[in-house]
Amino acid sequence: MLAEKGNTFFIHTFGCQMNHADSGIISALLQEEGYVQAEQERGAGIVLLNTCAVRENAVERVEHFLQRLQGQKKREKGLIVGVAGCIPQYRREEMFLRYPAIDFLAGPDTYRTIPSLVEQVRRGGKLASLEFNPEETYQGIEPARDGVTSAFVPVMRGCNNRCAYCVVPFTRGRERSQPFNAVLLDVQKLVASGYREITLLGQNVNSYCDVENGYDFPALLDAVSREAPLARIRFTTSHPKDISESLVRTIAFRPNICNALHLPVQSGSSRVLDRMNRGHTIEEYLDKIAMIRSVIPGVALSTDIIAGFCGEQEEDHQASLDLLSRVRFDSAYMFFYSTRPGTFAAETLADDVQESVKKRRLQEIIDLQNHISAELFQEAIGTVVEVLAETESRRSSAQLMGRTAGNRAVVFDRELYQPGDLLQVRITGATSATLTGKPVP
Ligand code: SAH
Ligand code: SF4
Ligand code: F3S
Questions:
Q1: pTM for the complete prediction?
Q2: Where are the alpha helices (DSSP H) in 160-277?
Q3: Would you state the CATH architecture of domain 150-377?
Q4: Index of the ligand 2 atom closest to the CA of residue 204
Q5: In CATH, 5-129 is 3.20.20.100
Q6: Does the Cβ of 15 fall within 6 Å of ligand 3?
């Protein structure tokens, strides 16, 4: 049966992996009520934007979408536009005034209300559902998933840290965790459906805690890796101050937990880290890196770094460059500081690094990191690595793209392999972002 247009929906997702997982939850909730997910936005009766507020440019992207949808609403009678996720939670009802295209707003804790918001909007009016609910973990909802190889499993939500620059605690609320057994049940289902890679997600995943039953994150990770022995297990994101030796030993000990850690540092200067309220110095960070490398030799490390935070001097910036050279991360997400109204930094610190200086410093960070990543890629040539095949390569159907345990993309000759296969690949070449290779029988 063909779905009626009014009952079809399309979700555009912005932001982090958690937001992508949340779009799967929203989709499942709508489908439970009889709505049908459309393949593309064109022709869908309900368009949802699941949004990110972490930097100004993320907000600007959504603004462009809303302007375009405003025009579209004039042409398409009955089109419903909803905005979900971190921007409405943060900017609240003022969004209706700024963006007339919006019919309803829903925050990260109120996705369960979306089907009824749609119904109510149909009867007329604009609605917002933006209450925080520190109990909400969306337990029992199986998210709709795109791929058949890799799956995200949110295990905790929210953030109790107060990094001075960051809006996430304001958009996601307090930390709360899924019960241990509920996570294991989700993992069992994924195993039964043939998933080969499971990524446990949380804004602060190593703050995971099932208080009632006394399980922490290392215990959960260990149990998940045993429940899914043939799948690769990953997790993100970890705060450096919460990385424990017990977690690192769990990664080292369990063969199917990928030897990879994303450990956002934000700055190489202890003075800046203090202003950022990160809760550790750069020496403590480097001690953790040394501990991790001694327990997991060859571990792939990645990080996040911000250029031009309030009060950052040239020597602080130099300390960030020095840190990159010292640690030699596999990869990094690099940003210039974007002031977020309402955060501690916006309220109390001057955003005093000129935009041109922020951009120049960011470019220096990017250039250095690209150079380091390229060197590490060159060093990989000639080695044999385990790759999980994910998709057909974008360039040619005769090749597949997959990833190493350290999260490096590898393009290799397809031969008789299929997405979902785990195979050995000899690396024969490297471009700036991808390794190339041939399967080893
Ligand atoms: N919970 C995760 C990250 C959340 S946001 C963590 O703590 O690691 C992802 C990244 O965005 C952060 O690590 C930081 O590098 C960057 N970021 C956050 N707020 C920012 C801001 N105001 N300006 C620039 N980058 C920011
Ligand atoms: Fe933001 Fe810090 Fe929480 Fe990460 S740990 S989400 S950077 S406040
Ligand atoms: Fe963005 Fe919200 Fe994730 S602000 S980074 S979508 S938690």
A1: 0.95
A2: 168-172, 180-192, 217-227, 245-253, 270-276
A3: Alpha-Beta Horseshoe (3.80)
A4: 5
A5: no
A6: yes
